[in-house]
Specification:
The protein is an alpha+beta fold. The protein has helices at 12-22, 69-86, 106-120, 174-183, 185-191, 195-206, 212-220, 234-245, 260-268, 273-279, 295-301; strands spanning 30-32, 40-41, 47-57, 90-101, 126-135, 140-150, 165-169, 226-229, 247-252, 286-290, 309-317, 322-325, 331-333. The structure holds adenosine-5'-diphosphate and magnesium ion (MG).
């Protein structure tokens, strides 16, 4: 699509040329990348295509006062890669659609691509197309990431069975704490968190990790009956999995995994760490369920330096709902506190 020429500092064709120069693609199976009307990709035999898209709107998903262009590009890529990870798929290609306001220049947008491609590089995901438009109201960025899985093996949200154990990777709530530190700088100063804790939480917010390799590991070893990535907070994302599987869930508050930085932040700001985990978005950890008979094998196989997995509860019948066993042994319903648009 052509840009509205009048006030645009960004020259569409020169911009696309510089993308091709900066991010050349030599992906296997790629017949045609940027430069034609559409990309052409040869699918490997016996594999299915897994496709996801994610739209980020300025003022809703990011704020240019607290996020750099690199941050925005990086996180847009991670949001998509994490969806691919939760399907147990191998990520392959990315397409980028942009609506750019007059206030953003070519160097700004190239910085956004630098962040985006930095997130894609570890997985050899190549840029194969996109679209560029002007915007009269803020910056919009929509990514599409493709991946593949062996036919019939994608991890779905719908496979959880009563009695399955619920696991998560990593630690929960860090990204929300990082966001709160960023958006309330006075608050950050007032808290006097140790520098290393503050830095840890900010990095968890700005540079989350997508667990693509671990998702594929769960799939190849058949160690997940259902899976989802935690992009909107545990309370909402667990509910999505339960709805799709027609089951309920019991979460154990005292087994939720927290970083020491998050515990420090929660104490300093008088917040409940469990509430941060339930509400917190953008952790991009994986949540999955597994039959109890496989949990030993899972624990053994997942034992790797730097990898943390935690059993946080168990799948219950649908009528049980979604409840949390608190430290005093009582069961409380888990309200949806995670992020929802149009609420
Ligand atoms: P058309 O008008 O036929 O859709 P475009 O001029 O929009 O074609 O795009 C030309 C080529 O540049 C296509 O290969 C398209 O995928 C690619 N492209 C356009 N915008 C972007 C972008 N923001 N990022 C990556 N590739 C892009
Ligand atoms: Mg186009």
């Amino acid at each position: 699509m052509a840009l509205r020429k009048a006030q645009q500092p960004l020259k569409e064709f020169a911009f696309i040329d510089s993308l091709v120069r900066r991010f050349p693609t030599r992906a296997p199976g790629l017949v045609r990348g940027i430069g034609d009307d559409a990309a052409v990709v040869t699918l490997p035999a016996h594999r299915q295509l897994v496709v996801t898209t994610d739209l980020l709107a300025e003022g809703i998903h990011f704020d240019l006062r607290t996020a750099s262009f690199e941050d925005i590009g990086y996180k847009a890529a991670i949001a998509n890669l994490s969806d691919i990870a939760a399907m147990g798929a191998r990520p392959e290609h990315v397409l980028v659609a942009l609506a750019i306001p007059a206030s953003c220049s070519t160097p700004h947008i190239l910085r956004l691509y630098r962040g985006l491609m930095a997130a894609c590089r570890p997985y050899r995901v190549s840029l194969i197309g996109g679209d560029t438009s002007a915007s009269s109201h803020g910056l919009f960025l929509s990514l599409t990431v493709t991946g593949t899985v062996p036919t019939g093996s994608a991890l779905l949200r719908s496979g959880a069975r009563v009695g399955d154990l619920i696991y998560v990777t990593g630690t929960l709530g860090d990204s929300l704490a990082g966001l709160q530190l960023l958006s309330r700088r006075d608050h950050m100063a007032a808290l006097r968190l140790p520098r290393k804790d503050r830095q840890f939480l900010l990095t968890r917010h700005r540079r989350p990790v997508a667990h693509c390799r671990f998702g594929q590991f769960l799939r190849t070893h058949r160690l997940a009956s259902a899976a989802i990535d935690l992009s909107d907070g545990l309370s909402g994302d667990l509910r999505h999995l339960c709805t799709q599987s027609h089951v309920g869930a019991e979460i154990h508050a005292d087994s939720l995994p927290f970083s020491s930085a998050l515990l420090c932040y929660a104490t300093a700001s008088r917040m409940d760490p469990a509430a941060l985990a339930l509400r917190g978005g953008e952790d991009y950890e994986l949540l999955w369920t597994v039959a109890p008979s496989k949990s030993r094998r899972l624990q053994r196989a997942a034992k790797q330096p730097g990898r943390r997995i935690t059993c946080i509860g168990v799948i219950r019948p649908h009528g049980f709902g979604i409840r949390m066993r608190t430290e005093d042994g009582r069961l409380r319903p888990v309200p949806i506190t995670s992020y929802e648009h149009f609420r």
